[in-house]
């Protein structure tokens, strides 16, 4: 199974919600996207983890009743010879993933 990129998933969610976008600028990396937003050149949907980057002029807002966008990630672990710490970390990530989807607070940079 192939996963659509985050960009494609965002555009598809917008279309599903009846919002047809006109992309005028596209940044190659998410931090560059935040710089464009801070410069007043538009808005963007970014993963919740990006709120850790406090950027002056950027406000992060959670989406309630949002389209449920997911960005797939993978945990990579050695099959043979993994350290006890690595195994414990992997177990902790699995527990966190099972309890995920906490609401995102608003933050300002």
Task: Considering the chains and any ligands shown, give keywords for the structure.
single chain, 109 residues, mainly alpha, two-stranded antiparallel ribbon, 2 strands, 32% helix, 4% strand, elongated
Write structural notes for this entry:
With 109 residues, the chain is mainly alpha-helical. It has a domain at 6-70. The chain has 3 helices and 2 strands. The chain is elongated.
Write the layout of secondary structure elements.
Layout: H1 6-16, H2 30-38, E1 59-60, H3 84-98, E2 107-108
Antiparallel strand pairs: 1-2
Low-confidence stretches: none
Question: Main beta sheet: strand number and arrangement?
Answer: 2 strands, antiparallel
The count of β-strands is: 2
Strand order of the largest sheet: 1-2
The outline comes out as elongated
Helix/strand-derived class? mainly alpha
**Taking all residues together, what is the mean pLDDT?**
77
Task: Provide the helix percentage.
Answer: 25-40%
- Measured by DSSP, the beta-strand proportion falls in under 5%
The ordered H/E elements are HHEHE
Number of helices: 3
Distance separating the two termini: 37 Å
Rg value: 17 Å
Describe the structure in brief:
This protein has three helices and two strands, in the order ααβαβ.
